[in-house]
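Narrative of activities, Objective 1.

The group set out to show that a structural description can be obtained from nothing but a protein's sequence at a throughput compatible with the screening campaign. Below is one input-output pair from the validation batch, recorded exactly as produced.
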Amino acid sequence: MSAIFALAMSTLAAQQAVQSWDAKFRAIPDAGNIGEYIKRMSARPHHLGSPYDKDNAEWILAKFEQWGWDARIETFDALFPTPKERVVEMIAPAPFTLKLEEPVVSVDPTSGQKTEQLPSFNAYSVDGDVTGPIVYVNYGRPQDYEDLERRGISVRGAIVIARYGNSWRGIKPKVAAEHGAVGCLIYSDPMDDGYFNDDIFPEGPTRNGTGVQRGSVMDMPTYPGDPLTPNVGATADAKRLDIKDVATLTKIPVLPISYTDAQPLLAALKGPVVPESWRGSLPITYHFGPGPTRVHMKVSFNWNRAPIYDVIARMQGSTYPDEWVIRGNHHDAWVNGAQDPGSGMSAVLEEARALGELARQGWRPKRTVIYAAWDGEEQGLLGSTEWVEAHDKDLREHAVAYLNSDGTGRGFFNPSGSHALENLVNDVARDVEDPETKLTVWKRQQARRIANGTREEKNDARTRADLRIAALGSGSDYSSFLQHAGVPSLDLRFGGFDSSDGIYHSVYDDYYYYTKFLDTDFAYGRALAQVAGSTIIRLADADVLPFEYADQADTVQTYVKELQALLKTQQDDMRERNREIDEGVFAAINDPRRPLQVPKKETVAPALNFAPLENAAEALTQAAARYRKAADTARPKLASNSAAVRAINAKLLQAERQLTDDAGLPKRPWYRHMLYAPGFYTGYAVKTMPGVREAIEQKEYAAAETEIVRVAKALEREAALLDSISSSLQP
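Output recorded for this entry:
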């Protein structure tokens, strides 16, 4: 037998072993166990700093240890203000005091745990005692304020009322403050989250009239994590900012309210009737205001710090112990949190149990596998961010990938994440059965896109080898790994058949609701465990790391085209707006009762030099193709214990890091990734090539030229790294 043939046979045997352990793993997860985990974790409220939050962390630790993992709790200490006083009262045209209360529902056994529940509030709102007229601002986005300004309506000195949806909640007070508002109320309109969509809880799954969405309003697009310790872990000896110097607190007081509490305020508003796109589903006529509604709003907080309990479990790698594959979900909740985060955390726990069972059967991962149960996610990704900041250097040197979940539901598997992992997650999805259709979860998602997608999505689903995955913005624990440390990341979950928004961040997100309306037999929790666990095994046991860059390069090419289209659309819109001004269109449609503000003519956006970006994207495309060819040719010749494999993986570990820049993004240097970031004015929603895209959107064209060059250099760095790997694989 020749040496080359022996090496090929050794590698083939290794691949078959991975497939065998992978298949064995998928048979182990048990839906009943998942249900029991959810029931246990959601038995009592367990927000950050609460007794049951710590109790859950210790229970999770004991489970990991029972299943054979080396586990411990890492603690941090973060700012977490809790409500001291909450008052909202209408003082004109008639007195009305808002209840600000979610009542007990008799059929829901845990909704009455009042002494342990956090009241409804928005974390990281500043204290405030303000009085002013109310102005309705729709979803409170920048474009909504542009509409108000065209109508001559100012929010300066007013309290705005915005409805939840279409932007992250923290954007609403941020934009309101920029326009001079003194306070912000956020309510859930039944059009978006209530009886317009389905029967209300407890008869149905949607939000009832008194349900309230809690949530953080920290300015996470600036940086997430402990507001007092940006860029460093919030350990006991960390240097902390004074609260007055924190950039991520709101500038005005903000409070969430129910639609029952919101209706009297909105009903009393006068002024012009809002356009159709601004109307909700309350039985009122929606007016902009201001007047005659005036409101007094007072909120104050206990500005204390709270302990964070991150549970970290390790299974040491047998061959490449210094390469880490990381999996996580948070364990804290706003109240009981059966869906968020229990449904996701329970799947993670069942994966850990199943991997422990594999280990008892003789499997050992080649790479070190780390499982994490994060704390403080709800307040602003506290636990994961502090852990990443504390271990930033180690992660840059050792982290292979991070896989995240944050709740799951019934329906379709719809992963998102780093596009170097797109091929891998597609391959796993082809091997996992959908619990209801008995198709693969990949085939079911393909069918959905063909049936419901845009023309482009339909075509991609029919013709592209891999289904596209979406890019990651923010809103869950992957953010610090990907956008700060440059670790390739995936967010994995199922959904599309259940509406969990009806109880999102309310006292009714509990075991009763989950077992009545959501994944009632926990079958999709099991499917999530199968998908994520199989992905972990393939990442942990592949000799050459299973990254694929052709999909990534293809996606990068689409981003370049999108930026060019964005600029052209902006130029066309500016020309059309200037033409309307010249033709007197605004004057002709003037309403004498409230004159429209005719905008000033704008200088049309200049042409931008996209050549550096186009050239870099093409260089990455070619480098990705060369790497794929070289890797496919060399892989059968590589022994699993060869020095060549280690050298290749050492470079592959740094591929995603080439897309980061230590200087960070403009105005927010904490975010280092040049391809993915949460939008500065969207919050959760991603902005791809954010430095360029947001500069164009904000009409900062000189900055856009600068950012084009920065992104191009990042792509060139990755292309050069891939070419160096390809060269090393040549015979």
